[in-house]
Write a structure and sequence with these properties.
The complex is a heterodimer of chains A (about 190) and B (about 200). Chain A contains 1 helix and 12 strands, in the order H-E-E-E-E-E-E-E-E-E-E-E-E. Chain A has about 190 residues and is mostly beta strands. The chains are: A mainly beta (about 190), B alpha/beta (about 200).
């Protein structure tokens, strides 16, 4: 699991980056940390125990790799292609995802809760036990996904497609849905 | 610290395997069902399974105990409120255990059941059936529900909001997420405070 030490800055409870006593926001060498993280994202190796909160990333194509036990909460991702990546127990809560691709990903026990997702494509993915609670989507596509045990509770879904999905044990309780398409999906087997 | 999550298809329960590093002693929380996948998880990490923590005595969380005892013979820790068919070391609220080089804080959160225990290991909270992603545990009646909500607000929600939440069922979460989006917690909390105000006015 990523490092649970919290930032040395007074009153800050965010988790530190891999090295040093500060979180990304309070780190004196943000550029260096961001560069190191971008290199790791673009590299061949899996991302294990990485922690960087509040970073901004743009126009990247991530090669097929696994994100394991990592924390990238509060980050901004614009035009990032995560296709065919694997996410295991990784935290992407309260992020902004804009124009991102998650096609054919595998996600288990990961967290995207509280994130804003604009024009994102998750189609063709296996997304089990994944937390989407409180997300805010616009023009997103979850079509052809296995969403077994994934939780979309309390989310605000607009112009979003869930066409031909497995929704067994998925959770859509207390969602606000506008122009959401559940064609050919087993919505009746989800909690709603 | 390494945390591995295992999903039991029998009781839809999450089992957690925790060890400080590969080859170290390990703790297992809620063995709902022991299958080859879980055994492989233990063995591939070369863990020496020494301790089992039970969040409460419900079949979905304890059914794998028999198999585990035959293979690893671990020490079982559970609330003193329940009895088991295997020897169990009773634990109580506020107790701090040092198991497998990890410090485990015991938090009693009654409501779902009288023996419900939550375990805090570093910044990870293993909540069993007390607090889950987007919901709270089921209760037998409104008195138990009030007790559960009070216990959650006073004992869990007072902790750091960045703490990671690993529940007995459903997806992982963080305390901040539950503070913001847990509908029953927010809704029933509001009813409670309105009633309090009404009493004050009276």
């Amino acid at each position: 699991m990523f490092n649970f030490k919290t930032c040395a800055h007074p009153q800050c409870h965010a988790y530190i980056c891999e090295e040093g006593p500060f979180c990304f926001h309070h780190s004196p060498n943000q550029d260096e940390l961001l560069l190191h993280c971008t290199d790791a994202l673009l590299g061949e190796q899996d991302i294990l125990d990485l922690s960087l909160t509040g970073g901004e990333f743009e126009n990247l194509t991530i090669p097929k790799k696994a994100f394991i036990s990592s924390n990238m909460a509060w980050c901004t991702f614009r035009n990032i292609d995560f296709s065919r990546c694997t996410f295991i127990t990784s935290f992407f809560d309260f992020c902004l995802f804009e124009g991102c691709h998650f096609n054919e990903i595998t996600s288990r026990y990961s967290i995207f809760s509280g994130s804003k997702m604009l024009d994102c494509d998750f189609s063709g993915s296996v997304i089990n036990h994944t937390n989407f609670v409180g997300i805010d989507t616009l023009y997103c596509d979850f079509s052809d996904c296995d969403l077994y045990f994934s939780n979309f509770g309390t989310s605000y879904l607009r112009d979003t497609k869930f066409v031909d999905c497995n929704l067994k044990k998925a959770d859509f309780l207390h969602t606000d849905q506008r122009r959401v398409d559940f064609r050919y999906s087993n919505y009746s087997e989800a909690h709603h | 610290m390494r945390i591995y999550q295992h999903f039991s298809v029998v009781g839809f329960c999450n089992t957690y395997l925790i060890g400080s590093e590969k080859g170290s002693e390990a703790i297992l929380i809620d063995p709902g069902h022991v299958d080859t996948e879980l055994i492989h998880l233990i063995e591939s990490n070369e863990f020496k399974l020494k301790h089992v923590l039970l969040t409460h005595r419900h079949q979905a969380h304890t059914a794998g105990l028999g198999t585990l005892m035959k293979i690893y013979n671990p020490t079982i820790y559970a609330s003193a409120f329940s009895s088991y068919e295997y020897p169990v070391k009773p634990i109580s609220d506020h107790q701090v255990l040092t198991l497998s080089e990890l410090e485990v804080e015991v938090i009693h959160v009654p409501g779902h059941s009288l023996d419900s225990m939550v375990y805090k290991i570093d910044h990870a909270l293993f909540t069993g059936d007390t607090l889950m992603c987007g919901r709270v545990g089921s209760t037998e009646g409104y008195r138990e529900q009030a007790l559960l909500l009070k216990s959650i607000w006073t004992r869990l929600m007072s902790l750091d909001e960045n703490i990671l939440l690993f529940p007995g069922h459903g997806t992982a979460s963080k305390l901040r997420i539950e503070r913001m989006f847990n509908h029953p917690l927010l809704e029933l909390g509001a009813i409670s405070s309105e009633r309090q105000n009404w009493r004050d006015e009276e």
